[in-house]
Write a structure and sequence with these properties.
The protein is α/β, with parallel strands linked by helices. The chain folds into 3 domains: 64 residues, Trypsin Inhibitor V, Chain A, CATH 3.30.10; 64 residues, Trypsin Inhibitor V, Chain A; 65 residues, Trypsin Inhibitor V, Chain A, CATH 3.30.10.20. Helices cover 30% and strands 30% of the residues. The protein contains 6 helices and 15 strands. The strands form 6 sheets. A 3-stranded mixed sheet has the order 2-5-3, covered by helices on one side. Strands 7-10-8 form a 3-stranded mixed sheet, with helices on one face. The longest helix has 29 residues. It is elongated.
Length: 260
C-alpha cells in the first residue's frame, strides 16, 4: 500500500466524524436509513430473484390431457401455458392437447412458456341443398363439401324428372361430421300405368315389400311354409310371374319360408 492510501483513509474518517454530521444530524440519519433500506431490498427481493433464476424445471408430458389439466400441471411445475394453435382432429375430443413445445422431459427455467396445439374435435360441414338437382350434380356438391354419396333409393314422382334428387338424409342445412355419407332419394320419373312384375323369389320379405312399394304394387295375401333350405322370411313363390305386365296398384300374393 502506498504512502498516500493511509492519508486518504484518515481524511474519510475525519469526514465521517466531522462537525458537519454533528451539525446536520438529519443528514446522518437519512444516510443510515437509506443504507438499511438498500440492504433490506437486497436481502428480501433481489437475492431471491437471483437464486430462483437459476432453478430448472422438467417439462411434463401434457399430450392427451385436457387443456384445464395441462394448465394445472404446468402451474405446479412453475411453468406457463399458451395455446399456439387449434386444429381439427376427429379422434380427439375438443380441448385435448395434441402436441407441445418444448417436448416432455426437457429442462427449462422456471416461468418458461410451454406452447401447445389443441384439438377442435372433428370438422363439421353443412349438407348442401340437393333437392331438384341431378344425381351426378348432387355427388359433385357433396364432394365439394367433403361429404360422401351414401345409399341411393329410387321412387316414382310426378313432380320431378327421372334421376333428379327428391330429398337427402340428413336433410339440407344439417351440420354433420366431415366425410359423412349422405343418402339420397332419387326420382324414377312419373309412375307408369303398367309395370313389369319383379322377381321376388329368394329375397328377404322386407326387401320384397320395399321393392313392391317402389314399383307401385301392393302386398296381398301371405302364406307361410316350413322350409329348412332357406332362412326364415325368404320369399319362396309369388302370385305373378316375373316380367309380366300388370297395372300399378295390383296386389301380389307371396309364399314365405318359416321354421315353425
Amino acid at each position: 500500500m502506498g504512502k498516500s492510501e493511509p492519508k486518504k483513509l484518515k481524511r474519510v474518517l475525519r469526514l465521517i466524524w466531522s462537525k458537519k454530521f454533528i451539525k446536520y444530524p438529519s443528514l446522518l440519519a437519512g444516510t443510515l436509513i437509506f443504507l438499511f433500506l438498500l440492504l433490506l431490498l437486497l436481502d428480501r427481493v433481489i437475492m431471491p430473484i437471483l437464486v430462483h433464476w437459476g432453478e430448472l424445471a422438467v417439462v411434463p408430458d401434457l399430450t392427451e390431457l385436457s387443456l384445464r389439466e395441462a394448465k394445472a400441471i404446468s402451474q405446479k411445475k412453475g411453468l406457463n401455458l399458451r395455446v399456439m394453435a387449434e386444429v381439427h382432429d376427429a379422434t380427439k375430443p375438443p380441448g385435448t392437447v395434441l402436441s407441445q413445445i418444448p417436448p416432455p422431459n426437457t429442462k427449462v427455467r422456471e416461468g418458461r412458456i410451454i406452447k401447445v396445439t389443441v384439438s377442435k374435435g372433428g370438422k363439421t360441414v353443412l349438407v348442401p341443398k340437393l333437392k331438384g338437382v341431378s344425381i351426378r350434380q348432387a355427388e359433385l356438391l357433396l364432394a365439394h363439401e367433403g361429404l360422401e354419396l351414401g345409399e341411393v333409393t329410387w321412387s316414382p314422382s310426378d313432380s320431378f324428372p327421372k334421376d333428379v334428387v327428391l330429398f337427402s338424409t340428413p336433410s339440407t342445412g344439417t351440420s354433420v361430421p366431415y366425410g359423412m355419407f349422405v343418402n339420397l332419394e332419387v326420382s324414377l320419373g312419373p309412375k307408369p300405368d303398367t309395370v313389369k312384375m319383379p322377381d321376388l323369389v329368394g329375397m328377404n320379405l322386407e326387401e320384397g315389400k320395399k321393392l313392391l312399394r317402389e314399383m307401385g304394387l301392393e302386398l296381398g295375401k301371405m302364406k307361410y311354409s316350413i322350409n329348412d333350405e332357406f332362412p326364415p322370411g325368404t320369399i319362396l313363390r309369388q302370385s305373378l310371374d316375373p316380367g309380366e305386365k300388370i297395372e300399378r296398384g295390383s296386389k301380389i300374393n307371396l309364399e314365405v319360408s318359416t321354421t315353425e
